[in-house]
Amino acid sequence: MGTVTIIGAGGFVGTSLVESLVLDGVPVRAVVRAYRNFAPLCRFGRMVSLQLADAEDAVALQRALEGSAVVINATTGVPAGIVRSTQAIAAACRAAGVGRLIHLSSAVVHGEMKSQSTADDSPPIARHWMPYAKAKAAAEIWLREQMAHFPFEVVVLRPGIVWGVRSPHTMQIAERLLDKSAFLVNEGNGIFNGIYIDNLVAAIRACAYTPWLSGFFNVGDAEQVTWREFYAALGEHLDCDVRKLTNVSGSRFPWSIQAAVDYVQSLPGINALYHRFKAQLPDGAKSWIKSRLSGHVSYNRTADEYERVPVVDREMWCLQRVRNKPPIKKIGGQIGFMPPITFAAGIQKTVLWLKSLGYVQETTSAA
Fold first, then answer.
1. The pTM is what?
2. Sign of the Cα pseudo-torsion (276, 136, 251, 316, in order)
3. 61 Cβ partners below 8 Å, 6+ apart?
4. Residues 32 and 97: beta-carbon distance below 8 Å
5. Domains of the chain with CATH codes
6. 9-30 confidence digits (pLDDT tens)
7. Which helix or strand (DSSP H or E) is residue 218 part of?
8. Cβ–Cβ < 8 Å for 244, 367
């Protein structure tokens, strides 16, 4: 196949995808917004063509996309810019003569998936409290309306929580299990709607290689796993007994001062102002503020006592209330894709990664 261009190549998913393609000898072009994002890609040397372009700048993107067979939108970005970047990327693909755009959306566009009828082609739900979910849903709706008018194919993938080696989500969960501040909603019986990073990379690549492909696809791990099962699989190696974690009711959100602050920050206007202000701060100032808020560094990560009244993050609370796993039969039936990494294998790889970081001790066992 021709050159694959990845927009947002400096992020977690982007760098994992770049590495996978490079190791198979596929020509890769990596597009990032700032020079500092080149850092995680420099290890690939001349095997990757690095391009600088803002995802909201269609003109700069067009120059970066020239000659690309497939473009993958792996950007995250701030919620206020997600729709704008989606529109700019589509305009650049049209102008550059790209053959296919693979757009990474998110399973959060379907909320808590209370119904089992959440099919691949189901439109996003109408209302979201989370700015990220609202923006991803709006971008999907715009693509759905415009797809018939594009001179290129559009593939929209909806992954769940991307977990595993180098995953920021997994790192946060591991740290909360270690310091015993993690919690379970409704005894942890909600569905962990996740996809191991290697499975997501494999799905993206399968969609890049398959001829004549367009449409919306749910992507996730093959197995159905509950949050209790996911926490237990990691907690076993992190000196955390999930049976001792605090249970939180899923019927009513337990508000706290921190949760109220997070909610105010999630309001559209305030969220946009927050990210605009954050973008203007020098990196040094951001690091100083972050260090002040996080307090003193503690090298003893493992806590002895379980937090009885943990601070309940609203996003995590909602994620643990998911009732159904979205079906992934369409991508299997249409292009024959099956997730190559099992849940057990993914956990094994993740634990080895956490061990390399010093999070897992050889003598550690569940309490």
1. 0.90
2. negative
3. 7, 31, 53, 54, 55, 88, 89, 91, 92, 96
4. no
5. 3-164+192-224+324-341 (3.40.50.720)
6. 999 999 999 999 999 999 899 9
7. strand 215-219
8. yes
